Amino acid sequence: MAMRGWRKKFWMGSAIALVALASCSTGSSSSGVLPGVQAIVFEQRAFIGADGNDVVTQGNRLTIDYRRYVPGGGVFVLSPPTPDGTLTNLTESFAGVDILGLDVSFDATQVVFAMRTASDDNYHIYLANVDGSDRPRKLTFGMYNDIKPIFVPGDRIAFMTAQPYTAMGTRADEYEHRREVTQLATISISAGDADRRLCAQNLSHSADPFLMSDGRVGFSRWEHLGPVNDVKLFAMNTDCTQMVAIAGQHDKPANGLLQVQEISPGQFISIATSRQGTIQAGTLVHIDARARSGATGLALDEQHARFDILTPAVPTDATSPASGVGRYRRPFPLGDGRLLVSWSDGDVNGRNELADTAPNFGLYVWDPETGHRTLVYDDPDVWELYALPVRVRDIPPVNQGVIGPAPDPTTPAVIGSVDVTVTSLDETVAGGSLDGMTLSEALTHTRRVRIIEGFSSEVGAIRQFGLTRHEGAAILGEVPVLADGSWEASIPSLLPFHLQPLDEFGLAIRNQLLWIQAMPGEDRRCGGCHEARSGTILPRTGPTTLAQQAGPVDRNIPIPDRLELPWFNAPAGENVQDVFNAACVSCHSGGAGDPFAGRSYTVQITTRDGEMLTFEIPYLDLSERLIDTYYEREVVSYPASYVSLLYPSAMFEASDVMGEMPPIWVTPGEARTSRLIAKVNAVSEDDASSWAYDTPPHPEDVGGSLTREQRMVLIRSVDLGGQYWSRHNVDGADMWRMARY
Amino acid sequence: MKNLHIANPVLGLLLVLASAGMASAQEPPTIFDPVHGEISPGTAAPSEAELMDVIRSGAPSRLMGLLEHGEMVECNACVPLLEAKLLESGNAGVRELAAWWLRRRPFAVGAIMNRMRLTLEGDADPTRRSRAAEALGELMDAHSLVPLRRAVEGDADGAADTSAMVRASAVLALGRLNHPAGNAVIAYAIEDTDVSVRRAALSVVLIVNFYREYDALVSALGDADPVVRRRAAQLVGEFRPCPPSRRC
């Protein structure tokens, strides 16, 4: 690629300055930067478009940038690894190349990479020889992106894919309505797509797989569940089983932990940055996830993972660093404490967009002793990324699960706990009969575990799931906890779930805000309700739990049999509104007997034409009367019950709201602390005279009545997140009623 | 009269914790709230003034990030500015996130949808009509099915749009809408006279639910355009539809 004039001048000057700086700071020439390494392999990505202008904004938004196709890149071997080394282009025979991730085989003879070409609509996995012999071999061919491949033991390749899973596609959170979130998958080197195995789904992207020394695959995972919205570190076996958290679930220095590599067992090097707006670049952070005490051998403890920022001058968010500080991408540990990194000076954020000037990532060795970078290679007209030394490495143990045929996806999985009362979480429970108790004490009151399936607006044409940040939800079951604190259930494999331990009143004691999943036939037994990772939880009553002895409760049920809680417009008997219609609207519909009659607040919206639209929201109206947002035939909004109950919790900084605001009737995901639930109260499943709250149950206090099941509809609806939509009231609900999975 | 500033204590707490975290950028903030669960660092909601400032002059990715974090910020003054972005921004990501934010405004989205429909049906500029169609898809409301279908097929109330760019955008919007009644329109578009529309239609077949219009896919195997033929072959391979003449 020809070097443009200004860029060439800048490059020449910078190169001289960098070499001088390197010499000053390290006392060695760049030719000695990587002693013992004969060659490195890396990818070049173009950032200059066909019109000659920089392509800056594409790919800047997300943790992964597979929507940024800018042709002009390639996979290169640099030998020796110096600025004047010889470059070999392994993808020279293809036109319009863009590369998204690569890895070197254990014997250092092959490179696997993800490439999109001019003649392809998607990124696919390719295999090439490091020496450049033979044309690269294409291993995947689907109508979806396969990216970021790595070699894993068992002659397989793990990577991320946007392949749809079922008729419903891949679960994708509300930010990803394209239904193109990336999930993990593997293929065999010899068979490619013919031996393709999908891992269990998350509701958002998974990204940046890396191999761990114990043979597991680590990866970053974008977590979106209610108020949670960030990128954490996970690991799984190469057969996709035992997906577990490693770090970032309880604490971390930035929103996203990306492009992680293992330094040694339990210790990792990562990029920490905001999830978006920094072109996947950030500060270098050392992660130590080793359990500090109580464990025999190596144990990872994600609750107490420690983070040490190695480049403190680099912002952990999208703000601009000082000149010369720049940002880093994918660090690779060289084994001597130093890191092979990509680095760019400048803002590496939105200011690059405003200036229409892309950052320039080059390859450097970063020394933790001095904090200095030493140039390895930089072509100023392209980015150099994902560099790896070409050298033989040990093959970690092969997971036996990858040997033999792929599992049948219809085979259920089993989940459960040895003793649900065991926890390491230092929390206090608020609301209901357990108000003020420690979580540990409160969990001794657990009667059931609610299993909640997550899905998103891939179910159909909905603007969002309602006035809530929670995704779609369906209850697979509320499984009894036995006398020893154990429980087990068989559930559909591959889907994302989260759990809620319930008290005798059906109220969630805690809401697990993390998706869990299991592979076909997998047994996933937790010790407790987030037990300490450094200990062992044993059954209270013998070698096996009571739940194991009884066998798992069968909750491997098809979609129509799962309990969903549509607010309105589903068949009679399925709606939350049905409860209000039966027991509440006689008093709470604005009529003469309504204690809140005449009380309301208003929301004003000024349209682009300058027209002022005013909407009046009742203080509390539980009727199905539609709030007047009907406008020029286009939109009918939610019933009064939904707006008056959910709007107070849905918006904030609402300076355009005028009038008397009601209390937070509903806190989505938390029935226990919601005013609505405290008012109606919750009754014990054992004793019809035992109530969760000290206040008199309502409407019984005014002569009305609600059955326990009616109360449970309200409690479940709030605990799930206060969604309006489900697969039962969306257009196409009749199709969902025939869908199994 | 009471103006609501922070109506939600959960989010208020989020703001407080996030602010504390920002005060000392290098000290890892505690992000686990014992009552409300995990609070993610760096996702603090912006103020209305911050939102307005970035909408007016911020970089696209900064705007997109702030809109996401400001998902629940009630900002009346932001509505018309973001509505303008739907038709006027040259950045597809900005248009997408603007629609994402606007569709969370239950009291504003009706008027916006109405104007997008009117733009799609009557604006002289095909680029604006195309973006209006795109916005109707992003606003994710089933009421947009009718105007989008009309733009592709035409109906008793109006002819199909004469611009292939607009028809292609309408097809992509139907894919985004993911309404079961849109599947027949997508199938219709697979036989459009313009290749860009046919390609657009094939690109959404895999992302809508319950697509069963297999005949259109089989017909596209004989398309004059090689890309259409390739995509059709991939889709036929994906669905493996059973020919009417055989028992499968």
Record the SSE blueprint.
The complex is a heterodimer of chains A (741) and B (248).
Chain A: H1 5-26, E1 40-46, E2 74-79, E3 86-89, E4 98-104, E5 110-116, E6 124-129, E7 137-138, E8 146-152, E9 156-161, E10 183-188, E11 192-198, E12 206-211, E13 217-225, E14 228-236, E15 244-247, E16 256-264, E17 267-273, E18 283-288, E19 306-309, E20 327-333, E21 339-344, H2 350-355, E22 362-366, E23 373-377, E24 382-389, E25 413-417, H3 439-442, E26 448-455, E27 472-480, E28 487-491, E29 497-502, E30 523-526, H4 546-550, E31 553-554, H5 576-583, E32 600-606, E33 612-618, H6 640-650, E34 657-659, H7 675-680, H8 708-720, H9 733-736
Parallel strand pairs in A: 25-30, 28-31
Antiparallel strand pairs in A: 1-2, 1-24, 2-3, 4-5, 5-6, 6-7, 8-9, 9-10, 10-11, 12-13, 13-14, 14-15, 16-17, 17-18, 18-19, 20-21, 21-22, 22-23, 25-28, 26-27, 26-29, 32-33, 32-34
Chain B: H1 9-23, E1 32-33, E2 37-38, H2 48-57, H3 60-69, H4 78-88, H5 92-102, H6 109-122, H7 126-138, H8 145-153, H9 164-177, H10 182-189, H11 195-204, H12 214-220, H13 226-239
Helix pairs in contact in B: 2-3, 3-5, 4-5, 5-7, 6-7, 7-9, 8-9, 8-10, 9-10, 9-11, 11-13, 12-13
For the CA atoms, what is the radius of gyration of chain A?
A: 28 Å
The name CATH uses for the topology of the largest domain in chain A is Neuraminidase
CATH homology superfamily of the largest domain in chain B: Leucine-rich Repeat Variant
Distance between the termini of chain B: 69 Å
Count of distinct structural domains of chain A: 3
Quickly give the CATH architecture of the largest domain in chain B. Alpha Horseshoe
β-sheet strand percentage of chain B:
under 5%
Low-confidence sequence ranges of chain B: 1-37
Q: What's the total helix number of chain B?
A: 13
Output the radius of gyration of chain B: 22 Å
Count of discrete alpha- or pi-helical segments spanning 4 or more residues of chain A: 9
Mean pLDDT of chain B: 83
**Oligomer, anyone?**
heterodimer
Number of separate structural domains of chain B = 3
Q: What's the β-strand tally of chain B?
A: 2
Averaged pLDDT of chain A: 90
